TrEMBL record:
Gene3D superfamilies registered for this protein in UniProt: D-Amino Acid Oxidase, subunit A, domain 2, FAD/NAD(P)-binding domain
Organism expressing this protein natively: Periconia macrospinosa
Stated name of the protein: FAD dependent oxidoreductase
Keyword Cell cycle: no
InterPro entries attached to this UniProt entry: FAD-dep_OxRdtase, FAD/NAD-bd_sf, MTOX
Any one Gene Ontology molecular-function term assigned to this protein's record: flavin adenine dinucleotide binding
Length: 485
């Protein structure tokens, strides 16, 4: 199948980062009949978790880092993205075409750096590989080791010294071993999605964002088995020459062909809220505090990451040390993990697992004792759904043996940063342009075969990570902050 005609009807299901970015880049390449469906009324809710959005992309903030060990395909993709993030900031500052509700003061990317911390005295292999690879690829002195005197001077010259020891480890007499990715920082996730939505609309994309009219129910196939469109919850049929499924954590249960390749897994998130009058307001501002990761690849007792405060004072910390699942029997009898959140219809999940809370609290006690000194406790928790592939690579390809159907998913915890540019690559895949690039090869439809998976998928209801077998935290929401819910 060659590339679709520029006027051919194209449907994208899902307005998370994969759907938004693909829609934007399809329109930029001259496709004139692109429609995005989503069950979330994002025009009303503005991609805010607090307003009932539970997609991975609908969030306060996300980490942007180009540090990727030896994985140059993602490293270079991030540098490409960062250039685009800066252009988006410039567009906002210019005020020429502001998205609804945003001002010239808004930014979607803040270059506050991302500090990756180790527990002991040694840099982990991943960080060492990043430093080597960056040097080889011409990105010298972007990665700054916290214990290296020359690097500390470079951090000072970049105005990023605050990010070399944000937890004041040295003054507390503790080890402070880590690497600051000075190219990275924080994406303001909800605003960035709103901006992408606005840009795509301006470029001519149609959006149906509605719990009924926008909710995908099923694919429609013609007599030869080719996918010819979708049916939505209002029982309407929508014709398409090409349908792209980009439903994040919901994709594996909507597209059973992904069995064994992708699975929805839960991450655990807590938010503290710093009052504006607190002395910590200034300390945790993104001008003074980086995004950070702690023991990210060290299993259940590590896997933490966090952010400077947002404009409302939220300081968010996430736990990824255990990837929880929610296996549910599907119509075909197979158990697939389906996202469940505070906002799910019917049975909801309002607490994070106790294990996640314990690891977060232990870290906060040791690294951020000033929160307790100021009487600031967890204000809100969130279970947030990733779409993991078995090897942590994205999945961007046509669905085998199903003409007319593509998929863009498998974000595996690291796709948000590519909101401005991933769609350009997805369109290349759709058009068959330069498919031999390393990233595109990594994203191809694939099978585990004899390889060792990075993520073990589909362990089912009996698995130790299934939420039904996991103790949940209780009493995590402090009384004073209940109003936030
Ligand atoms: C807790 C957490 C932290 C993360 N941190 C980072 C980070 O720091 N940096 C980073 O780069 N990445 C991060 N990621 C990963 C990143 O957020 C994801 O890879 C990315 O947002 C996935 O986008 P998506 O478009 O695949 O899915 P989603 O954002 O989940 O969007 C899917 C969309 O599909 C819609 N949908 C689902 N079912 C239907 C249906 N039946 N009909 C219509 N619409 C439907 C949903 O409403 C949703 O809008 C994180 C992810 C999580 C969960």
């Amino acid at each position: 199948m060659g590339p679709p005609a520029k006027s051919a009807p194209i449907i994208i299901v899902g307005a998370g980062i994969f759907g938004l970015s693909t829609a934007l880049h399809l329109a930029r390449r001259g496709y004139t009949n692109v429609t995005v469906f989503d069950k979330q009324p994002y025009d009303r809710t503005g991609y805010s978790y607090l307003e009932g959005c539970d997609a991975a992309s609908a969030d306060l903030n996300k980490i942007i880092r180009s540090a990727y060990g030896s994985q140059t395909e993602y490293q270079e993709l991030t540098f490409e993205a960062i250039e685009a993030w800066k252009r988006w900031n410039d567009e906002l500052a210019s005020g020429t075409d502001l998205p609804p509700g945003m001002t010239t003061k808004d930014r979607v990317f803040i270059n506050c750096g991302n500090l990756s911390m180790a527990d002991g005295d040694m840099l982990p292999e991943f960080e060492k590989a990043t430093i080597r690879t960056m040097e080889e690829c011409g990105h010298r002195d972007t990665q700054l080791v916290t214990t290296d005197a020359r690097h500390i001077e470079i951090a000072k010259s970049k105005g990023m010294n605050f990010a070399m020891d944000p937890f004041q480890r040295q003054t507390r007499g503790r080890a402070n071993v880590g690497v600051l990715d000075s190219s990275g920082g924080v994406a303001i996730a909800d605003k960035a999605c709103r901006m992408a939505l606005h840009k795509a609309r301006r470029a001519g994309v149609r959006f149906i964002l509605d719990p009924t009219a926008g909710a995908f129910v099923s694919l429609v196939r013609n007599a030869s088995g080719r996918v010819s469109g979708i049916v939505t919850k209002d029982e309407k049929y929508h014709n398409a020459h090409l349908t792209l499924m980009a439903c994040g954590g919901w994709t594996p249960s909507l597209l059973p062909a992904l069995d064994g390749l992708c699975e929805a897994t839960a991450g655990s998130v807590v938010m503290y809220k710093i009052p504006k009058a607190s002395p910590l307001w200034h300390r945790f501002a993104p001008e003074n505090f980086p995004t950070w990761m702690w023991k990210m690849r060290d299993g259940a007792e590590g896997g933490l990451y966090g952010f400077p405060r947002d404009e409302h004072g939220h300081v968010k910390i996430g736990y990824r040390g255990t990837k929880y699942t929610n296996p549910c029997p599907q119509a075909d009898g197979v158990e697939r993990s389906v996202p469940v959140t505070r906002w799910t219809e019917g049975d909801k999940l309002t607490q994070i697992p106790a294990q996640a809370m314990r690891v977060i609290r232990r870290f906060v006690d040791e690294y951020l004792p000033e929160l307790a000194h100021e009487g600031i406790d967890v204000a809100l928790t969130r279970v947030c759904w990733y779409t993991d592939s078995f090897d942590n690579h994205f999945v961007v390809d046509r669905v085998p043996d199903t003409e007319g159907l593509f998929v863009a998913t498998g974000g595996s915890g690291h796709a948000f940063k590519y909101l401005p540019n991933i769609g350009n690559w997805v369109v290349d895949v759709i058009e068959g342009v330069d498919l031999n690039r390393a990233a595109i090869r990594a994203w191809k439809w694939r099978h585990l075969g004899d390889n060792m998976p990075s993520n073990v998928l589909m362990e089912g209801k009996k698995g130790a990570r299934a939420l039904g077998n996991v103790v949940l935290a209780t009493g995590t929401v402090s009384k004073g902050n209940r109003a936030m819910l």
